[in-house]
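Obj: model holo form, ligand = adenosine-5'-triphosphate.
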Amino acid sequence: MPTSWSDSIEKAPTGGGAGATSHASRSTYVPPHLRNRPPSADPPSASVSHAGPALGNGLQGYVGSNVGGLQSVVPKQDRIASGGGRGGGVWNSRSVGWDRGREKEANPFQYDVDSEAAFEAQDSTGINFDAYEDIPVETSGRNVPPPVNTFAEIDLGEALNLNIRRCKYVKPTPVQRHAIPISLSGRDLMACAQTGSGKTAAFCFPIISGIMRSNQSAPRPPRVPRMAFPLALILSPTRELSIQIHEEARKFAYQTGVRVVVAYGGAPINLQLRELERGVDILVATPGRLVDLLERARVSLQMIRYLALDEADRMLDMGFEPQIRRIVQQMDMPSPGVRQTLLFSATFPKEIQSLAADFLSDYVFLAVGRVGSSTDLIVQRVEYVLETDKRSHLMDLLHAQRANGVQAKQALTLVFVETKKGADSLEHWLCINGFPATSIHGDRTQQEREYALRSFKSGKTPILVATDVAARGLDIPHVAHVVNFDLPNDIDDYVHRIGRTGRAGKTGLATAFFNENNSSLARPLADLMQESNQEVPAWLARFAARSSFGKNRRGGGSGGRFGGRDFRRDSSFNRGGMDMYGGCSMNNGYNTSSGYGGGYGPPVASAWD
Ligand SMILES: Nc1ncnc2c1ncn2[C@@H]1O[C@H](COP(=O)(O)OP(=O)(O)OP(=O)(O)O)[C@@H](O)[C@H]1O
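Output (holo C-alpha cells):
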C-alpha cells in the first residue's frame, strides 16, 4: 500500500528545495509523440533500483510515495539524478518524457485491485451504463461533429486505448460519445452531464491524445530555468478533486509519454515544485496554489493548448471567478481560439453560461440529460424532520441500514451538514453512539482531510460527515447512501451532493431531512424529484405550491438552472437568432412534455421547450 502523506514529507530530502540537484543532470525534452516507445526499445538503466513491484510491462524500481494523499511516484534513482522535462530542458529526441533511462513511471493501476476486493461482497449491481442509454442529448453550435458509439471509432492512440481497456471501460458513456469527437476536432466545448456519468475521461482523453499527437513542429518552450511550461491545465475547485483527477489522468496517460502533475493548497509546495521540475505536460491544479506558482514564476501558461475547467459553474461563480479571470485572462495564457477550452459540470445556471462565454471561442454546447438534473439511478427520499429530531432520526436510519447490511457491516454513508462546527459535533456524537464516523471540512488540516477520505473509502469509518467541500466531483465507489442532514440553499448543490452515490451506472439512495427552514428549496426540490421520476410526497408538493405562488420555477435557488440548455438560444441573448449558432440537434425525442411542469401551481416551461 502507499505510504502516508506525512511519511512522504519525512522522507523527502530537505534543504535543497525544488530542483536543487537537478541542473547538472537535467535531461532533455522530447515531444510526447516520440516518448511512447515500446518498452522493449528502452534500454534498461544501470542505475535503476529494483525496489518496487514488478510491473506488467517489465518495468521495475519505483518507489511510491503518497504526497498529500495522491500516489505520486518519486523514482528512487531520481533522488540522485533528477530526470528533467520541459522545465528548462533542451529539445532533443534522444530522451523521453518519462525519461525512461532514469525515471520510471509507476503503475497507477496497481492499488485498484486491493481497494476493490474489500467491497466485492457488498457490490451487487456492477457497472450498468445501459442505464444511461435513453438519456436525451442536446447539442448546439456550428457544425457539431457527430457522436461515436465505441472507443474503437475514435483514433485516440494505441497507448491510450490500452489504458482504457485497463480501466475496464468497455464502451463510452453518452457524454464521452459526444464530447470526445467534439474535443478531438479542436472545438471549444461547454458540456453538461449528470453526476457520475464519466465527464473526467471525457475531457482527459482528448487532451492526452492531442498531446501524444503533437509533433516536433509544435513551438518549443523557452529556456527559462526552473520554470515549468505545461501544455494543458485542468482546474478544479477542491484539493481532493484535483488529487482524484490527477490519479485518473495518470491512469489514462500511463506509458503514453504524457506526464501529469498536480498542485494544490495545504500540502508542501516544495514537493510539488520538484515534481514540476521533472517536467509536466498536464497540470492539474486548484486555483489558489496555481496563482502562487505563477507569482513565484515557477509555472508559465504560455504553452497552454488545452484549458479544462471541471465543475466549471462553481469555478466561475462569485467565489472563484476573480482567481480564474486572473489565471486565464491576466497571465500569459494564449487567448480563446488559440488554446482549446473545455468546460464541464453537471449543472450550468444560465448566468454562469453567459460568464463562461468570455473564455470560449465558437463553442459547442452539449447537454446530456436536462441541464442540472439528477440521474434516476438515485432513489431520492425527503422526510419531514424537525431540527431537534435530526440526530435521533439519523440514528434510526443508520441502525436500520446496519441491520440490512452485508455481514452487519455499515454501508458507506455520506452525511452532509451546513457548517464545519456542525460537522465536528455530529461526528463526535456518532462516535460516542457507536457509529464509526469521521469528517471532512475546511477547518481540518489537509492531512486530516485526506486521512478522513481514505478511512471512509476503505470502510474503516463507514460514515463521513461533510460540508460542501465533499459535494462536487468526488468519485468514491460504494457510497450507498447520501444523507442531507442539513439541506443546502441551492438546488444545484443538492444535485452535486446526492451525486456522490448512484455513480457509473450503479444505484444509490439519497435521504433529505426537510423542515420549515428549507421552504425556499421546496419547489426546485419537488421539480427535480419529479423530473427524475421520484415520488414527491404530498406534503412537499404543498410546500412547493405555497412557496412558489406567483413565481415560476426559474425563480428558485437554482439561479435559472431550469432555463438551462444553451443560453445562446435565449431570445434576450441571441439577437441574431438561431442561425448564428447553426441550430441545435436533439436526440431521443426528449422534447415531449413528459408531465413535467404540472402539479405545483402555474405551468412552467420545460428546459427543452
Ligand atoms: N466508459 C466508461 N466505462 C465504465 N466506467 C466508466 C466509464 N467512464 C467513466 N467511468 C467510471 O465512472 C465513474 C464516474 O466518472 P466521473 O468521476 O468522471 O464522473 P463525473 O461525470 O465527472 O461525475 P461528477 O459530476 O460527480 O464529477 C468513475 O469511477 C469512472 O471510472
